[in-house]
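Incident review: delayed structure delivery

Summary: a single-chain prediction request sat in the queue longer than the usual turnaround. Root cause was a stuck worker, restarted by the on-call engineer. No data loss occurred. The affected request and its eventual output are reproduced below so the record is complete for anyone auditing the incident later.

Affected input:
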Amino acid sequence: MSHNTFGHLFRVTTWGESHGIALGCVVDGCPPGISFTEAEIQSYLDKRRPGQSKYTTQRREPDQVRVLSGVMLQDDGLTMISTGTPISMMIENTDQRSKDYGDIARQYRPGHADYTYDIKYGIRDYRGGGRSSARETAARVAAGAIARKVVPGLVVRGALVGMGIHTIDRGRWDWDEVNNNPFFTPDPGSVDIFADYLDGIRKAGSSIGAVVEVVAENVPTGLGAPVYGKLDQDIASYLMSINAVKGVEIGDGFDTARLTGEENADEMRMGNDGKPIFLSNHAGGILGGISSGAPIVARFAVKPTSSILTPRRSIDADGNQVDIMTKGRHDPCVGIRAVPIGEAMVACAIADHYLRHRGQTGRI
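Output delivered after worker restart:
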């Protein structure tokens, strides 16, 4: 299987399977002299880690990261300095239950990658989906922690802004609230609404989709290129590569189709510090594929989890018609744990463009 690597200068290769011994990534192209600790990487992995509430899969994985190469440990025994060589990181799998998937070893879950994966490769790891499992994304989160360090001052934050038929009240947006609830919602008033709604979905053995928003601040102006190297093009590509993502928009996205030119224009004025400021940000911080200096805003839609207890019609590998239901431990709303994954992918895209910009222009 090819296509396990993304990025140009900041290149990430992920490896491993959902029910294998371990999974991980190799980050190639990280500049030398970047300092970080395993604890910093772990803090992001802990946000994605399963089994933290009744609203996520009950698979119990500590997702403990180990940095294997590409760094020199400092005298404090904690701080690592990148050497410019490939940074390899590993996360062991400790709570696989492959027997849960025995009933679907030759059956295709509707809405899942089972069928297409089998048709393409002629062999399919039915134990949790193998490489097509969202468990692979743990390695991306680890890489995203490194990416944040590459761009000075970069802040990338994500939040769940919609679940099924419910959306947040943006007037109550509070970034401090995001890590205080199991849904990563920035609206404290939505917590009970999401909880009651998802309880009903979960108890029915079903699943539901969600919308996640990622905001990147302190992004240098000038990242990206106007034709085939657009920053928003790569952000969209990175986000679309996340399991179960079916749509991406930048800034106001599809809502801009309902705006007039006057409404959509992000007017500019000169600030007191001599730097331009934007009076609005419909463009989501990117103009003509190049970062404007305004916050970059990306939003993506996550479909409902395909592994559900409700019987659905399908076929098996022999062409027989079957009714299929999926046992095991699955997220009733996979969009919840997609928040730190989306953050990581946006951070990786910005880090890659930061290094490309520096290489081409010599600035930054």
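Verification: The longest strand covers residues 155-163.
Action items: add queue-age alerting; document worker restart procedure.
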